[in-house]
Amino acid sequence: MNYQLYRTSYFVPRTSYLVLLTSYFILLTSSLLAQAPAAELVKKVKAKLDKVNDYVATGKMKTDVVFIKAPISNIKAYYKKPNKFQVKRDGGLSLLPKGGVSINISSLLLTDDYTAINAGNGTIDNLPVRIIKLLPLTETSEVVLTTLYIDEKALLIRKASTTTKDNGTYDMQLSFGKYADWGLPDKVIFSFNTKDYKLPKGVTLEYDDGSKKPELPKNKKGKVEITYSAYVINKGVSDEMIK
Amino acid sequence: MWKLIKIEVFKIFKKPRTYIAFIAIWAIVSLIQLALYVDGQKYIDFVLSGVNDTFKVGGKIINGYFVCFIILQTLLIHVPLLVALVSADMVAGEANMGTLRLLVTKPQSRTTLLLSKFIASSVYTIALLLWIAVIGLFLSMFIFGTDGLINAKSDQIILLNANDVFWRYLCAFAFAELALITVGSLGFFFSIFAENSLGPIVATMSVIIVFTILSTLEIPLFESVKQYFFTTHMIGWKGFFEMKQTAEGDSIPGTIRNLPAVLRSAGVLLAHIVFFVGASIVVFKRKDVLS
């Protein structure tokens, strides 16, 4: 009798373990089936961007850096595969942030030399996004980590955050419109770290107009906002244009 | 009076030393142009030393407008000496040669005589500045081409569009003219008291050097009084190279950030000119001319 009881109590827990284990595997498999692996999603986005061999985009650029006073200016952006990108201001000089990345999404996915890691889900502008982290495999890479916020449905990068070795962290927020099918944004907001700017007054021989100058905020993030109005895609861009 | 002015202008341009200023300016401008043509990038690297790590400059930064800005900035400290060379000689030079007494015996009034001399020295100043404009601006535009202008201040960088620069230079040169005529009027005033031109030239330059140093030094004691130095207002031409901003912080092309301040500076310079010339006339009318 005692032996029978012992056998029954031993059998019941083993069955429940089996059920639990099976259901765990079913859940895991279904979740994996629902979400494509990170690397695959990045590849899909890259394939979409790869449709663009070159483009000339026209737009307007607004520079918001505490020590730079520049008017909103008309710009032309030139891109040529694989990594040539140049923003030129129409009739004027431009100060554009340096760094591992230009203000261009293709440069984010330039090589295959990275590991893509799924970092969960989130929302950007009320749109669901997959968060994917790209870790470069080469130790010499200037980029330490790139975080992509990918709209899985439209295969668009809505936001990218790139941490570099020497130039801090760059954030790129992208808005899409009529060129979304090509993966090209209508608006890019590029934010970055800035350093303080100072020159001796004896060198600049400044004109003191007597007005009280406001204290400039320190260590404020700089922002460059480019709003593209039109793209001319795959019509050819010469190297001269990008120079 | 018109005839008198013509005679005075003729006398100025008859003297070989008048042309020293033109040759000196040509030499300085050429050297600056050569230096910036050969090694301009190093100068840019210095000016943008705090920015170069984070930003890259697109466009032709070393262009005619930028070169002219450097030339004006450098020359407008030294040109007063060249202006004083002539203006401080206008009356003292005549006294030195012994022709002043002869001159005041002529039927025209002393006021007319002095005004014609002052206007003639101003004509020379205008010619000098036009010369700077021709070789400093137009020749630089020809050699270096044109693009937007980068105006590096002590705590900010102003970027001006290429089509928003030329008119600013026209205003700046007009303002610089006023500044140099102020220096000329000071030299002219000192010239009344001397028997040879060396004293008034040195006195004019001494005043400018002392006032410029006091204006540049950031010592609280001088901060409150430097608004009264005319040298503080002489660099008001730089005010034309700043733009107004919207509430969002966007710079507005075609505007001047603080036009009232620039006009006030122009007014201060004009008041100095009126004061120095007026004082010269008052003193000269009472002067017993013995030489």
Strand order of the largest sheet of chain A: 4-3-1-12-11-10-9-8-7-6
Number of strands of chain B: 5
Largest sheet of chain A: 10 strands, antiparallel
Task: Find the structural class of chain B using helix and strand composition.
Answer: mainly alpha
Helical fraction of chain A equals 10-25%
Give the CA-based shape of chain A: globular
Radius of gyration of chain A: 26 Å
Rg of chain B (C-alpha, Å): 21 Å
Oligomer: heterodimer
Coarse structural class of chain A: alpha+beta
CATH H-tier superfamily of the largest domain in chain A: Lipoprotein localisation LolA/LolB/LppX
Outline type of chain B = elongated
Order of helices and strands of chain B: HHEHHHHEEHHHHEEH
In whole angstroms, how far apart are the ends of chain A? 92 Å
Described by strand count, sense and barrel closure, the largest sheet of chain B is: 2 strands, antiparallel
What labels would you give this structure?
heterodimer; A: about 240 residues; alpha+beta; outer membrane lipoprotein receptor (LolB), chain A; 2 domains; 10-stranded antiparallel beta sheet; globular; B: about 290 residues; mainly alpha; two-stranded antiparallel ribbon; 11 helices
Write the layout of secondary structure elements.
The complex is a heterodimer of chains A (243) and B (291).
Chain A (H helix, E strand, L loop, with lengths): L1 H33 L3 H12 L4 E11 L3 E2 L3 E8 L3 E6 L4 E4 L16 E11 L2 E10 L6 E9 L4 E9 L4 E7 L11 E6 L8 H4 L17 E12 L5 H4 L1
Antiparallel strand pairs in A: 1-3, 1-12, 3-4, 6-7, 7-8, 8-9, 9-10, 10-11, 11-12
Chain B lengths: L1 H13 L3 H30 L7 E4 L5 H24 L4 H6 L2 H5 L5 H35 L4 E4 L4 E4 L5 H28 L4 H19 L3 H4 L6 H5 L9 E2 L5 E2 L6 H28 L5
Antiparallel strand pairs in B: 2-3, 4-5
Helix pairs in contact in B: 1-6, 2-3, 2-6, 3-6, 3-7, 3-8, 6-7, 6-11, 7-8, 7-11
Summary of the model, kept short:
Chain A is of the alpha+beta class and 243 residues long. Chain A has helices at residues 2-34, 38-49, 201-204, 239-242; strands at 54-64, 68-69, 73-80, 84-89, 94-97, 114-124, 127-136, 143-151, 156-164, 169-175, 187-192, 222-233. In chain A, 22% of the residues lie in helices and 39% in strands.
